C-alpha cells in the first residue's frame, strides 16, 4: 500500500510540475526580446537623426520591445540583467563621449551586446577574438557573402574593422586600392555583434538589418510588399483612376496608403475619392489608413485623435472600403498618446521614415516603443539605388529578414505614372503575394473589427464582398455652375477679344514705326555721304 501511495504521489507531482512549470517555460521562450538602445547624439548637423529612427523601426519590425535613451539622459543602474535581454550602442557622433554610468553598467551587463560605429571600449573589444584595425581614407565595395548583391560605397574617413574573428562574418568589404583586401563588414560572435557604421540606405542597410535580426535570434525571410503611399482626397482623381487601371494590369498585389477626412464627406468630390479607393481595393489592392498630419499639439483635446481615426474608419466602411492597417511615421511609436489613441487600433502597421525634426510634434514622448503583430519597415524604392543585384532570371532571390513595404509616392501626372510603372516592372526584387502566408492584417475600433485572412475581408467576423465587380470610375469634367456663370463666361470671351485686338494693334504700330525709323536713318546716312 505504501509502495502504491509513494508512486502515486510521485506521479501527481509530475503532473503538477508539467502544468505549472512547462507552460511558464514556453511563455518565457516566446516573449519578445527587450532591448535597451543607447545613442550618443542625433547628429542633426550631419543629417543622421533618421539613422536613430531607422534602428528603432528595424527593431520593432523584428519583434523587439525597444527602450531608447540618449546617453545624456541615461540613469545609472538602468541597464540590468533582469530588465533587458540586450543592449545596442550607437556611435552617431564620435566627438561626443558616452555616459560613464552607461559604460560601467554595460560592462557589468551579461546579456547580448551590439556596438555600431567606432570607439569601442577595451571591454567591448575583449568580447571578440581577432584583430582590431583603424583604417582611414578608404573606399570599399560591400558584397553580400551569399552573392545576392553588392555596392560601391563612398569614401570612409575613418573606420574600425575586425579581422580574423572566430565568429560569423556578415558581409565583405573589398578595398578599391592596388593592394587588394577582403575585410568582414559585420561580425557576430556568441551573443555579441559589431557593425563599423550604419545607413538607412543601400547595401549597408541590407547588411545591418541581416546582422541585427541574427543577433536577435530571428531567422525569417520576407519578400517586400509593393506599396503606393501619399494618396489623399486632394489628388487629381482622373490621374488616380488612370493609375489604378494601369497598376491592375501588372497583376502585382499592393498596398494603397491613404489619408482621409472627417469633413465634407457628403460632397461629390468625396464620393469620387471613395469610388477610386474601391476600384483600388477591388483587385489585388488593400487599403492602409495613414494617420492624420500633425501641425501642432493641443494637450487638452480629450483624445480627439482616437475619435478622428474611428470616424474615418467608420466612414470608409459605410462606403464599402475596408482598411486593414495603419501607416505612421516612426516617431509616433515613441509617443505614449499616439500609441494609445492611434497605433493600438491596429495589429498591423507600416512604420515610415520620420519627417524633418521641425515637423515632429510630440504629445507625451516615451522611451518605450510598443510592439505589433506585424510592423512593416517601410523603405522607399529609391533607397536601394546603386545596389547591383545578382538576378535569377528577371529578379533576385533575395528576401528581407523582417517584414518590409517597398514604397513609391503616388503619381501626380501621366509622366510620373509611367516612371512608377517602369520602376515596378524593372524591380530586381520579387514582390510579396498578399494573403499567401506570414501575415494577418487586422484593425479594430470600439465597434468594428476588420481582418484580411487568406485574401478575404471580414467585418466583425463576417465575410464581406470581395468587390471584384467594381467598375472604373469615370471622372466627370468639372464645369462652373452658378448664378453668375453666364456673365462670367461672356466676360471671359470679351476680355480675350480685347487682349487679342490690342496685341494686333500694337503689332501693326510696331511694324510701321520700325519702317519709318529705318527709312529716316537710311536717308540721313545718304545725305552725310
From TrEMBL:
Keywords: Membrane, Transmembrane, Transmembrane helix. The chain crosses the membrane at residues 493-512. The keyword Membrane applies. This is DUF2334 domain-containing protein.
Amino acid at each position: 500500500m505504501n509502495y502504491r501511495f509513494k508512486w502515486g504521489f510521485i506521479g501527481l507531482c509530475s503532473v503538477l510540475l508539467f502544468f505549472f512549470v512547462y507552460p511558464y517555460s514556453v511563455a518565457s521562450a516566446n516573449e519578445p526580446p527587450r532591448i535597451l538602445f543607447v545613442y550618443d547624439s542625433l547628429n542633426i548637423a550631419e543629417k543622421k537623426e533618421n539613422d536613430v529612427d531607422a534602428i528603432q523601426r528595424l527593431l520593432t519590425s523584428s519583434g523587439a520591445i525597444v527602450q531608447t535613451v540618449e546617453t545624456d539622459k541615461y540613469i545609472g543602474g538602468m541597464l540590468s540583467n533582469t530588465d533587458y535581454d540586450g543592449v545596442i550602442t550607437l556611435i552617431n557622433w564620435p566627438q561626443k563621449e558616452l555616459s560613464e554610468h552607461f559604460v560601467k553598467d554595460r560592462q557589468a551587463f551579461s546579456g547580448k551586446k551590439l556596438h555600431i560605429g567606432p570607439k569601442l571600449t577595451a571591454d567591448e573589444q575583449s568580447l571578440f577574438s581577432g584583430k582590431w584595425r583603424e583604417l582611414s581614407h578608404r573606399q570599399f565595395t560591400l558584397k553580400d557573402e551569399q552573392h545576392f548583391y553588392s555596392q560601391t560605397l563612398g569614401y570612409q574617413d575613418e573606420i574600425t574593422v575586425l579581422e580574423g574573428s572566430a565568429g560569423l562574418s556578415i558581409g565583405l568589404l573589398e578595398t578599391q586600392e592596388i593592394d587588394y583586401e577582403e575585410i568582414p563588414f559585420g561580425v557576430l560572435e556568441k551573443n555579441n555583434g559589431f557593425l563599423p557604421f550604419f545607413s538607412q540606405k543601400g547595401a549597408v542597410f541590407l547588411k545591418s538589418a541581416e546582422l541585427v535580426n541574427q543577433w536577435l535570434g530571428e531567422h525569417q525571410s520576407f519578400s517586400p510588399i509593393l506599396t503606393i503611399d501619399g494618396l489623399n482626397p486632394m489628388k487629381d482623381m482622373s490621374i488616380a483612376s488612370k493609375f489604378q487601371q494601369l497598376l491592375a494590369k501588372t497583376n502585382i498585389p499592393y498596398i494603397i496608403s491613404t489619408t482621409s477626412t472627417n469633413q465634407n464627406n457628403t460632397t461629390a468630390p468625396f464620393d469620387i475619392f471613395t469610388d477610386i479607393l474601391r476600384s483600388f481595393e477591388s483587385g489585388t489592392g488593400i487599403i492602409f489608413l495613414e494617420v492624420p498630419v500633425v501641425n501642432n499639439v493641443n494637450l487638452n483635446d480629450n483624445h480627439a485623435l482616437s475619435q478622428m481615426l474611428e470616424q474615418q474608419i467608420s466612414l470608409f466602411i459605410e462606403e464599402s472600403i475596408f482598411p486593414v492597417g495603419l501607416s505612421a511615421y516612426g516617431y509616433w511609436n515613441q509617443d505614449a498618446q499616439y500609441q494609445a489613441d492611434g497605433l493600438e487600433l491596429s495589429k498591423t502597421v507600416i512604420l515610415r521614415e520620420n519627417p524633418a525634426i521641425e515637423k515632429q510634434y510630440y504629445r507625451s514622448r516615451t522611451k518605450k516603443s510598443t510592439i505589433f503583430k506585424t510592423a512593416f519597415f517601410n523603405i522607399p524604392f529609391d533607397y536601394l539605388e546603386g545596389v547591383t543585384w545578382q538576378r535569377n532570371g528577371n529578379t533576385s532571390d533575395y528576401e528581407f529578414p523582417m517584414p518590409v513595404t517597398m514604397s513609391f509616392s503616388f503619381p501626380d501626372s501621366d509622366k510620373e505614372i509611367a516612371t512608377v510603372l517602369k520602376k515596378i516592372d524593372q524591380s530586381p526584387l520579387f514582390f510579396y503575394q498578399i494573403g499567401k502566408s506570414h501575415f494577418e492584417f487586422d484593425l479594430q475600433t470600439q465597434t468594428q473589427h476588420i481582418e484580411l485572412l487568406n485574401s478575404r475581408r471580414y467585418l466583425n467576423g463576417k465575410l464581406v464582398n470581395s468587390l471584384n465587380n467594381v467598375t472604373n470610375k469615370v471622372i466627370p469634367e468639372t464645369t462652373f455652375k452658378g448664378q453668375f456663370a453666364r456673365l462670367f463666361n461672356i466676360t471671359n470671351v470679351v476680355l480675350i477679344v480685347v487682349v487679342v485686338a490690342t496685341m494686333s494693334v500694337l503689332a501693326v504700330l510696331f511694324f510701321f514705326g520700325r519702317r519709318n525709323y529705318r527709312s529716316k536713318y537710311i536717308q540721313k546716312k545718304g545725305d552725310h555721304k
